[in-house]
Design a protein that fits this description.
alpha+beta, 5 helices, 10 strands, 25% strand
Length: 220
């Protein structure tokens, strides 16, 4: 009986460990190349919603409609056949929101993080996320002086990991703790950087849209 119980504990432990390791990976195929992201299991509602949209091909022909250098690239707008650069609209949402899943300070706005866009606090105090719009952080590098000033102004305390990441890799620390981060880029940041460098107009719309051709869930 004891042997059976021990074997059961081993199986349960192994299942638990493997479950923690199996973070879904998705490949984003764009006009400029491929980006691979993984989704965090600690944000299950965002993870499952994103997977659902990928399975429904909801991101096919979606464009990166907002690009800001040293900050981020954002996608989620699906163009109709008569949409053009001269006649562009704001990104269209799907009519529902995903409840906030802010896992902070474990996940913060360092370079390469996958985050959910949302409306402002004054109309969205719960900080619920857009169902379909997301952004990938590119960010900028910060000095100790800049980070110290930010800590003082916002009355926050950055962790050593945050401080090191913002100094060496870069990011967007001013958004920390206010938006849901639900994944990260694991391959293809060079493609993200290429998209970040496209020419934009005064509203941060690319002069030539970069399209997501398709997304697919990777087996491994």
């Amino acid at each position: 009986m004891k042997r059976v119980l021990i074997l059961l504990y081993i199986v349960l432990f192994a299942t638990s460990v493997s479950g923690q390791e199996k973070e879904p990976k998705i490949q984003i195929v764009t006009d400029m190349g491929k980006i691979t992201i993984k989704l965090y299991n600690e944000t299950p509602q965002h993870r499952d919603n994103f997977i659902k949209l990928v399975q429904e091909n909801a991101y096919d022909s979606v464009v990166f409609h907002r690009v800001i250098k040293q900050f981020m690239i954002q996608a989620g707008e699906k163009l109709s056949p008569d949409d053009s650069i001269a006649n562009k609209s704001m990104a269209k949402d799907l009519g529902y929101k995903v409840p906030a899943e802010i896992v902070y300070p474990k996940y913060f706005h360092k370079r390469g993080q996958l985050c959910a866009a949302r409306t402002a606090d004054n109309v969205n105090p719960e900080r619920a996320s857009s169902a379909n719009q997301f952004y990938i952080v590119t960010g900028k590098h910060y000095t100790d002086h800049e980070l110290n000033k930010m800590e003082k102004e916002k009355n926050i305390q950055l962790t050593p990991e945050q401080r090191e990441a913002y100094k060496t890799a870069g990011g967007a620390p001013h958004l920390d703790g206010t938006y849901t981060i639900f994944g990260e880029v694991v391959k293809g940041m060079k493609i993200v950087d290429k998209i970040e460098l496209v020419n934009t107009d005064h509203t941060d719309h690319p002069l030539k849209y970069i399209k997501i051709k398709k997304m697919k869930i990777l087996k491994k």
